[in-house]
Amino acid sequence: MDETTRPLRFDGCIATNIEQTYRHLEQVYERLIAPTGLNVLEWYALRALYEEDGLSASRLAALVCRHPSSMTALLDRMEQRGLLRRAVDPADRRSVRIFLTAQGRARRPQVERAAAQLDLLFKDLVTPEQLDTFLHVLSVLQNIHLTET
Questions:
Q1: How many C-alpha atoms does 34 have within 13 Å on its Cβ side?
Q2: Cα torsion angle, 59, 137, 44, 10, sign
Q3: Cys-Cys link to 103, which of 82, 87, 136, 144 (CB 3.0-4.6 A)?
Q4: How far, rounded to the nearest angstrom, does the alpha carbon of residue 85 sit from its chain's CA centroid?
Q5: Are 117 and 32 in contact (CB under 8 A)?
Q6: Quick count: other Cβ atoms within 10 Å of Cβ 6?
Q7: Tens digit of pLDDT at every position of the chain (149 positions)
Q8: Torsion-angle region of 5 (φ positive above 0: left; ψ -120 to 50: alpha; else: beta)
Q9: Residues ≥6 apart with Cβ < 8 Å to 92
């Protein structure tokens, strides 16, 4: 075992170790993202909007893995900072769409640079084959569904 690996906790319990890994990586993300002036959730939201501007608030919540009801404070904060604007969806007045502002779009190079740093960090620690396997496993885990018995 080298310095980059340690035994898994709780007898290798997958769920617990995934949660602990996420918490650890979030701390790493926060340090890499700090120069952008964003927190991790704001960074996630901007990345999602760079891929598709004008997302519904509920779709953005799903993409950043948050319950839609918890998005209001985040969107308020980002709107106050001039990063995005909300608009009622003309096709469904009950829905709100989220759009980047010029200031939000201007952050893209910083946001993408932080993302590239994270990717390099991962790629320096594992082989391409390990990364492919890991990404496959992540995809499988993200699509687990309980079947009714």
A1: 6
A2: positive
A3: 82
A4: 20
A5: yes
A6: 8
A7: 555 667 777 777 888 888 898 898 889 888 988 988 999 999 999 999 999 999 999 999 999 989 988 899 999 999 999 999 999 988 888 889 999 999 999 999 999 998 899 889 888 899 999 989 988 998 898 888 888 76
A8: beta
A9: none
